[in-house]
Specification:
Layout lengths: L2 E6 L7 H21 L6 E5 L2 E5 L3 H8 L5 E11 L2 H19 L5 E8 L8 H15 L3 E2 L6 E8 L2 E5 L3 E2 L11 E5 L3 H12 L3 E7 L3 H15 L10 E3 L6 H12 L4 E2 L9 H12 L5 E2 L7 H11 L2
Helix pairs in contact: 3-4
GO molecular function: ATP binding; CCA tRNA nucleotidyltransferase activity; RNA binding
Organism: Pyrococcus yayanosii (strain CH1 / JCM 16557)
Keywords: ATP-binding, Nucleotide-binding, RNA-binding
Amino acid sequence: MNAVVVRYGEIGTKSRQTRSWFERILVNNIREALISEGIGYKEIVARHGRIIVKTNEAEKATEVLARVFGIVSLSPAMEVEASLEKINKIALRLFRRTKRSLSLERPRFRVTARRITKELPLTSVELQAKVGEYILEHEEAEVDLRNYDIEVGIEVMEGKAYIFTEKVKGWGGLPLGTQGKVVVLLSGPNSALAAFLMMKRGVEVIPFHVKESEEELENVRVLWRKLKRYAYGGKGELVVAEVPKEKMIEKAVELAKDFGAKGIVSGRRAEKLTEALGDALIEENAKCPLPIYYPLIALPKEYLEGVRKRAGL
């Protein structure tokens, strides 16, 4: 593999000017992720609703980039000249490799093709048929468009074809750094999850912890190290203070002003939304000159547990 095809979703719904700005930040975050993880690359290009990362470490890069917010899916791919002969050969090679890895005698497969630009004279449907026929001529297999074991994907753009058999799910959301900064009251798993969900919406977080014991502080440091695996593009580092609990919000506001943050994030959760809870939140916000956000407050427990498990928090 010599490339990674990166797809994004929500960014594509923005105006052209806004989309270009979001793309630039996403490319910078991708670059930071690769550099920080020691993965070499030749070029990163954003065109036609795709970002192409040219690298000889495509599988390793895909694993890292799946943690970059704003990315919906990725595919380690082979980039070749967009001619039917070369597409056929690479598609067959990747099909065989996947067939071996799955230990299948007669796999069911399908070919999906998309011409993002139209240099290739074949239509997408014609290309799918031609590549499928070529695979059937050289391998024991059968076409099944619904219940397939292997999907050979082809995307054609600017004279190049990107061929792959894997599509890795990303987190989606917005690129980190596009939605300002907040201070997160980081104290345990719930507040870490709240920070994660804010990061997923493009917000850079400054983690703030009020130290009560060395053991608790070490647990928070572990949580922050886990969160930093998703913080490509962010510059925040854990800030620790030894102040009375009743001074926590006051100190967080000072920190927010120092960093230019626009709010404070709490990990507060509630099994049930009640009038008493609403009154408590109103009172809490009335005492704070900045808005306090509660990302977990009304989300289903099953959803939060799913996110926590997948994110490793």
